[in-house]
Write a structure and sequence with these properties.
The structure is a homodimer of 173-residue chains. The first copy, chain A, contains 5 helices and 12 strands. Chain A has 173 residues and is α/β, with parallel strands linked by helices. The longest helix of chain A has 11 residues. Chain A is globular, with a radius of gyration of 16 Å. The interface between A and B is medium-sized, with 34 and 34 residues.
Amino acid sequence: MRKVVFYGAVSLDGYLSDQNNSLNWLFETDTGGETTYESFIQNVDTVIMGRVTYEEVLKIQQDGEALYSNQEVIVFTRDMDKDFKGVQIVHENPVSFIDKLKETDGKLIWVVGGGNLLKPLLEADMIDEWWIQITPVLLGKGKRLFEDGDYLRRLELVETTSFGQFVELHYKK
Amino acid sequence: MRKVVFYGAVSLDGYLSDQNNSLNWLFETDTGGETTYESFIQNVDTVIMGRVTYEEVLKIQQDGEALYSNQEVIVFTRDMDKDFKGVQIVHENPVSFIDKLKETDGKLIWVVGGGNLLKPLLEADMIDEWWIQITPVLLGKGKRLFEDGDYLRRLELVETTSFGQFVELHYKK
C-alpha cells in the first residue's frame, strides 16, 4: 500500500499562509543553505492538493519552471467548471479517491494542502507520515494547517532536523 | 528589565487543552524520564495567568501540593467578584500591569496561559522568550495557544531539545 504523507512549512502559530495567501514570510526565512526537500521529493510520484492551493502554485510557477515536473498532480475541487492544463481534476470525495489511489503501484502520495483537504483526510485517519517545518514567525492570521475537526490522533515522533531557522518535525501514525 | 516568557506544552495542532479543558493527552505522553521544567522554574519568581487557567491549576492542586510554591502567583480577571486565596488578583489591563512589573527587581515572569491572556501580550510585543514543547497528539478541538490576533513577529530560533516524545522549541524576540 502506498503511503499518504504531509510535508510542508507552517508558521509557529500554525498557519500555512498569511491572510493575503502570501508565503513571503516563509521565503524570507534562512534555510542555512540546506533543506530536506530534495531528498523528500525523490520519493514522491503523486502530489494532491485543493483547488485554492493549486491556484497559489500556478502563481509561483509564473516566474519559473513547473514545481512538480516529475510528479502526477491531482487537484480536488467541487467546482465542476474548473479546468487546469496538465493536471488531473477530481470532483470525487478525496477520502474514497485516495483510498483507491493507495492500492495502485507507486511511491509516496504527497498531500500538499490546504487545510480544507487535510481535514477530511485526518478525520479518516489517512495521513501515514508528517514532515512539518516550523518557521519562527507569528502571523496572527491566515490559513491554518489544522482547522477544527473531529479527530483525535496520537502520533509517534520519528526525528527532528534543524536547518537554518527551521525545525522539521517528522511523525508517523 | 525582567523578561516575560512563555513556557508550555501544546498539541501538534496547536491546542493548550482539549475541548473538555483536559490535559490527559499531555500527561499520557512519554517524557523519557526527562523534562526541562526543573531548570526552567528555578529562574522564575512570578507566574501570571488568566482566571480560567488558574481554575485548572486549582483542580490539579487538589491532588497534591501547590504547583507554584516558590513563586508569586498573579491571576488576571475582569470579574470584580473573583477571589482566590494566596494569589494576587489583578483587574487591570495586563499590558500596563506587566509593563510596571518588568521594572521591579526579580527573575523571569512566566506567562502560564491561556490564549486570552497571551493575545494582548503578543499584540504589545511583550513576550521576550518562548519555550514550547510540541506534543505528538492531534486533538482536533480545544483551546488554542495562538488565537487569531493583530500581530506579525519574526522570532529567532535559539535551541531545540528532544526528550521522550516531546520536542521543545526555544525562541527569542
